[in-house]
Design brief:
This protein has a single domain, classed as Alpha-Beta Plaits (2-Layer Sandwich). It contains 2 helices and 6 strands; from the N terminus they run E-H-E-E-E-E-H-E. The chain is of the alpha+beta class. A 4-stranded antiparallel beta sheet has the order 2-5-1-6, covered by helices on one side. A two-stranded antiparallel sheet has the order 3-4. The longest helix is centred in the C-terminal third of the chain and has 12 residues. This is Nitrogen regulatory protein P-II. Belongs to the P(II) protein family. Homotrimer. InterPro entries: N-reg_PII (IPR002187), N-reg_PII-like_a/b (IPR011322), N-reg_PII/ATP_PRibTrfase_C (IPR015867), N-reg_PII_CS (IPR017918), N-reg_PII_urydylation_site (IPR002332).
């Protein structure tokens, strides 16, 4: 099993969710986060005063899938979330050693 962690732009969330559902992803965790990377924030003017925005709003997706499905999920996120502009996000892939469904006690692939 693989844990795929992706950060994307907030306005891309619904499009990415639809793409993942379309390829058979049955669940994901979504968190609103703030962060910075290459863009290193920006400045804005609020009520006449300029201030620095050091952290940019992002969405973090966490998806656990079978190892055989991981490449398909990564490709779906990559193509759907891409705008071609700075700040499109990142995708990380980690191994998952065990999964347990709390309600039924099912483990590993059955728990997904």
């Amino acid at each position: 099993m693989k844990l795929i962690i992706a950060t994307i732009k907030p306005f891309k969330l619904e499009e990415v969710r639809e793409a993942l559902t379309g390829i058979g992803v049955r669940g994901m965790m979504v968190t609103e986060i703030k962060g910075f990377g290459s863009q290193s924030g920006h400045t804005e003017i609020y009520r006449g005063a300029e201030y620095a925005v050091n952290f940019v709003p992002k969405i973090k997706l966490e998806i656990v899938v079978s190892a055989s499905m991981a490449d398909q999920v990564i490709e779906a996120i990559k193509t759907t979330a891409q705008t071609g502009k700075i700040g499109d996000g990142k995708i990380f892939v980690l191994d998952v050693l065990q999964a347990v469904r709390v309600r039924t006690g099912e483990t590993d692939a059955d728990a997904l």
